[in-house]
Design a protein that fits this description.
Layout: H1 9-13, H2 17-30, H3 37-50, E1 54-58, H4 61-71, E2 79-83, H5 89-96, E3 100-104, H6 118-121, E4 126-129, H7 141-150, E5 154-158, E6 166-167, E7 170-171, E8 178-182, E9 196-200, H8 203-213, H9 234-244, H10 247-264, E10 273-275, E11 288-292, H11 295-304, H12 321-327, H13 333-341, E12 342-345, H14 353-365
Parallel strand pairs: 2-3, 2-4, 4-5, 5-8
Antiparallel strand pairs: 1-9, 6-7, 8-9, 10-11, 11-12
The structure holds pyridoxal-5'-phosphate.
Length: 366
């Protein structure tokens, strides 16, 4: 019997219901169902939170990545560096613009791009790097920006899992030419449906992204580019603004839970089970991932002890059917190893002390 489910979104959003109900009603009665003030307000608030000048809201995180690549002019004939292990959207965005994916293996301690391997993957056609701040831990942006500068490459951060992560006083999404976010419901800043955003401090890039997301148009019925329709609904924007005010508390709570689990692992490393992320980087704990050789045994044990688990992500993109013909033979040993050993534990900010203890003691007893 699973008492502590891996994730309960209804419980996670319960604290916002009382304040959201009148906002939802107002939104309903306003008759403004596309764009409008609540979208503009969220964009302004989220840009300020990330420490950038502009935020362009879009329909979801995948579209944010696609629009970023298009706004930078990355397309056919170009190569883009992506991590070997990530949620597949990072790869799909590159495919969507017709560019070539160049996978680079990840660091075994963080599951983020192994920056030691990037230079060897560069060619004269490389145009961009998409670092992913996987599970909420900020990638090694210092090294990535240095390489990007040296080889004149664009940097698009896939910050879909890292809203609010900080490094040297800068937030995830504020390092690259663009930072791309998903507000998929399970994200730390999650909406009540699909939503996404790009952030940037470059006004021209912001304008280009806004245009591309709105049928290539700024002025009604005047179309400058063959754009797309990718917009955040006002009701999602209103909900996200409400939740954004609590994001720092959400992150703090997740950090507390992560440190309780880490203590249960004797500081991160027990004999049979170890914590991912053993480097000292800021992490907002979108997922708390442990590595176990006998993953099935561990998952069964947790389940028998009333703890739900999930797998992020059991098959790396290069081994998925849609990519295996082209990339299946590429050697990505760390990515593959992580995919085989990773198990995610419940870390929702709503978990009670009793539930956290239950997970921690199941970890310890294993
Ligand atoms: C790392 C990463 N990139 C991109 C995305 C795509 O976001 P969305 O599902 O909003 O399209 C997600 C989440 O789903 C993600 O985890």
């Amino acid at each position: 019997m699973t008492d502590v489910k891996f994730l309960e979104l209804g419980r996670l959003n319960e604290p916002y219901l009382a304040n959201f109900a009148p906002i939802a009603e107002q939104s309903f009665r306003s008759g403004i169902y596309i764009g409008g003030e609540s979208v503009a307000y969220f964009e302004k608030s989220f840009a300020a939170y990330c420490g950038v000048d502009h935020c362009v809201s879009v329909g979801n995180g995948l579209e944010a990545l696609v629009i970023a690549l298009r706004a930078l002019g990355v397309g056919k004939g170009d190569e883009v560096i992506v991590p070997g292990q990530t949620f597949i959207a990072t790869w799909l965005a590159v495919t969507a613009v017709g560019a070539k994916i160049v996978p680079v293996d990840v660091d075994r301690l963080t599951a983020n791009l192994d920056t030691q391997l990037i230079k060897a993957a560069l060619t004269s056609r490389t145009r961009a790097i998409i670092p992913v701040h996987l599970y909420g831990a900020i990638a090694d942006m210092g090294s990535i920006l240095e390489i990007a500068e040296e080889y004149s490459l664009f940097v698009i951060e896939d910050a879909a899992q890292a809203h609010g992560a900080l490094h040297n006083g800068k937030r995830a999404g504020s390092y690259g030419h663009f930072g791309c976010f998903s507000f998929y419901p399970s994200k730390n800043l999650g909406a009540l449906g699909d939503a996404g955003a790009l952030v940037t401090s470059d006004p021209n890039l912001a304008q280009k992204a806004r245009l591309l997301a709105n049928y290539g148009s700024i002025e009604k019925y005047v179309h400058l580019e063959a754009g797309t329709n990718s917009r955040m609904d006002p009701i999602q924007a209103a909900f996200l603004s409400l939740k954004l005010a609590s994001l720092n508390d959400i992150i703090a709570r997740r950090k507390t839970i992560a440190s309780t689990y880490t203590n249960a692992l004797n500081g991160g490393d027990s004999e049979r089970i170890s914590r991912l992320l053993k480097k000292d980087v800021d992490c907002v704990w979108h997922n708390f991932v442990v590595l176990v050789d006998d993953r099935k045994n561990f998952s069964d044990y947790m389940h028998e002890n009333g703890v739900g688990t999930a797998l992020h992500y059991p098959i790396i993109p290069s081994q998925q059917q849609c990519y295996s013909a082209e990339f299946g033979k590429i050697n990505l040993p760390v990515s593959e190893g992580l995919a085989a050993k990773s198990v995610s534990l419940p870390i929702g900010e709503y978990l009670t002390a009793h539930e956290i203890e239950k997970v921690a003691s199941a970890i310890s007893s294993y």
